[in-house]
């Protein structure tokens, strides 16, 4: 499992690094104003559907059934089931896309209630969202094909194909800025184009894996009914994080222009460890837990869950404390160029710190949720999802006026913590999750090591490199890189001193992979 965890994490890390480059270009050429706000709303809508129907609920319903069919009946029935699922998903999303394209002005009025017709943000958001909306058909179909590859334990291409999204995005921003002189529209078209590229790569890969899929007439077969019974509740149970972020965006439209952009870039930095560690843990954990559940291997399931939490938090905790300590330096170094001012970077850093408070909870939700899905339970996560969605909305409405752009991310962080606690308690009562003494002891020590690292690197930043946010170009990037290297060495030393792991052990595992 660790091998697959690191494989998915490595590809996801590459995708996130390229995504940061893409976002740096967006910040430099669009800044944090009306055009950026409209573009982020246009991207948020298809991206939300992608997470819900593609990576989230659909995979949670599809992967266990596909794995069971493949293990029990063989490749031919599993391939027929996957083809039926692909056809039903495509037909469903085509209907949603047509509906969205026709009624887009009303859709934007709902998800961006603060966009008035003055300043052109509303009209631009409608135009851009109509361009990006077909992306959801392509990327959700790609996510299903990736689920087939994951069920076959071929994790590399399933994770690697998503790198193309950011490659196409980078090219689109540059072409829009220098060739077409219309960055925002060309970048929007790049989103839809990337959907074709990702689906094509995955479709080709699954054929090479000996599991070619084809479109058939959509039918409600017994298999499809079984999947839909799992899918319906899971739409919220698996997608609470994305729905909470969408609520953040809706509330941010009520704040001054630029707030959506500050939240977006803060969330993108927060998504770097969340996407790498959370997605890797959730993707590789679900098939393993499903197998343990099918064979009624309770102890093995406990051990697998504990080790997944250990692996995830070993890197998540220092990331959380590091973001809290160096948020201004990170945001100014990554995005403080061109039209994205130093003031924009500082406001975005404040939002980043609020998001970072919930980073461990966001990751653990990804780790704990497969414990329900592996046992065929999507109803409990949906109940928790409804509660945390309501809690997030209430917190947003309470905090956005006094805390402005810090309110929505803080509300999401607090809601994620509650979500994580409820998931963990219920799994513990069902004897699906049972933290052992080793896990608890290591978590305490890892938290202490992360806190020591954050305190030390913050002291170094304030004494050795004061005013880093006002530095320019390569000097600022080099200084931040040096701070991160120092932080890494301090964390490894603290882990060794506290008896968690020696630097040789940690680096050896990564080097072997």
Based on CA inertia axes, which overall geometry fits?
globular
Which percent band covers the strand fraction?
under 5%
Helix content: over 70%
Report, as a whole number of angstroms, the end-to-end distance. 12 Å
Given the helix and strand composition, which structural class is it? mainly alpha
H/E element sequence: HHHHHHHHHHHHHHHHHHHH
List low-confidence stretches: none
Q: Could you tell me the radius of gyration in angstroms?
A: 22 Å
Determine the mean pLDDT.
Answer: 83
Q: Tally the structural domains.
A: 2
- Let me know the largest β-sheet: none
| Number of helical segments with 4 or more residues | 20
**Secondary structure tally: strands:** 0
Task: Write a brief caption for the model.
With 513 residues, the protein is an all-alpha fold.
Which keywords apply here?
513 residues, mainly alpha, 20 helices, 83% helix
Task: Walk me through what this model shows.
This protein is an all-alpha fold and 513 residues long. It folds into two domains: 2-435, no CATH class; 437-513, no CATH class. Helix content is 83%, strand content 0%. It has 20 helices and no strands. The protein has helices at 2-30, 34-73, 75-102, 104-111, 121-132, 135-151, 155-160, 163-178, 183-208, 222-237, 240-252, 259-294, 298-335, 342-357, 359-373, 379-403, 407-429, 437-463, 473-497, 503-512. Helix 2 (34-73) runs antiparallel to helix 3 (75-102), helix 12 runs parallel beside helix 15 and helix 13 (298-335) packs antiparallel against helix 14 (342-357). The chain is globular, with a radius of gyration of 22 Å. The N and C termini lie close together (12 Å). The mean pLDDT is 83. This is Probable lipid II flippase MurJ. Pfam families: MurJ. It is found in: Cell inner membrane; Cell membrane. It comes from Kozakia baliensis. It is a multi-pass membrane protein.
């Amino acid at each position: 499992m660790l091998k697959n965890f690191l494989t998915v994490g490595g590809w996801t890390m590459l995708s996130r690094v390229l995504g940061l480059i893409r976002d740096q270009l967006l910040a430099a050429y669009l800044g944090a104003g009306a055009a950026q706000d409209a573009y982020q709303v246009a991207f948020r809508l298809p991206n939300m559907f992608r997470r819900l129907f593609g990576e989230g609920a659909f995979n949670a319903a599809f992967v266990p059934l596909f794995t069971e069919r493949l293990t029990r009946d063989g490749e031919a029935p599993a391939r027929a089931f996957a083809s039926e699922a692909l056809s039903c998903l495509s037909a469903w999303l085509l209907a949603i896309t047509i509906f969205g394209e026709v009624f887009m002005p009303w859709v934007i009025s709902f998800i961006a209630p603060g966009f008035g017709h003055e300043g052109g943000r509303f009209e631009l958001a409608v135009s851009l969202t109509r361009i990006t909306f077909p992306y959801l058909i392509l990327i959700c179909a790609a996510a299903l094909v990736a689920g087939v590859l994951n069920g076959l334990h071929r994790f590399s291409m399933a994770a690697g194909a998503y790198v193309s999204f950011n490659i196409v995005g980078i090219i689109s921003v540059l072409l829009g800025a220098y060739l077409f002189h219309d960055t925002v529209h060309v970048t929007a078209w790049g989103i839809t184009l990337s959907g074709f590229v990702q689906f094509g790569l995955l479709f080709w890969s699954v054929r090479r894996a000996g599991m070619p899929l084809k479109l058939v007439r959509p039918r409600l077969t017994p298999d499809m009914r079984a999947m839909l019974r799992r899918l319906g509740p899971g739409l919220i149970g698996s997608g609470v994080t994305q729905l909470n972020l969408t609520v953040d965006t809706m509330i941010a439209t009520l704040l001054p222009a630029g707030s959506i952009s500050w939240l977006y870039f803060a969330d993108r930095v927060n998504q770097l460890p969340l996407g790498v560690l959370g997605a890797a843990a959730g993707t590789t954990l679900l098939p393993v837990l499903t197998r343990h559940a099918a064979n009624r291997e309770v102890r093995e399931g406990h051990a697998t869950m504990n080790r997944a939490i250990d692996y995830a938090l070993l890197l998540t905790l220092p990331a959380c404390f590091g973001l809290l300590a160096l948020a201004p330096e990170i945001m100014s170094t990554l995005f403080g160029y061109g039209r994205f001012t130093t003031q924009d970077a500082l406001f975005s850093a404040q939002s980043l710190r609020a998001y970072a408070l919930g980073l461990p909870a966001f990751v653990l939700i990804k780790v704990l949720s497969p414990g329900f899905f592996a046992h065929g339970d999507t109803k409990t996560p949906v109940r928790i999802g409804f509660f945390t969605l309501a809690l997030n909305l209430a917190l947003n409405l309470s905090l956005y006026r006094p805390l402005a752009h810090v309110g929505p991310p803080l509300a999401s962080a607090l809601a994620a913590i509650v979500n994580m606690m409820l998931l963990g308690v219920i799994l513990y009562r069902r004897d699906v999750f049972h933290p052992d003494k080793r896990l608890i002891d290591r978590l305490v020590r890892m938290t202490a090591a992360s806190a020591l690292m954050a305190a030390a690197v913050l002291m170094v930043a304030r004494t050795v490199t004061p005013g880093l946010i006002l530095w320019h170009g390569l000097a600022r990037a080099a200084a931040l890189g040096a701070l991160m290297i120092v932080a890494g060495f301090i964390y490894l030393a603290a882990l060794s001193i506290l008896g968690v792991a020696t630097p040789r052990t940690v680096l050896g595992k990564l080097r072997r992979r």
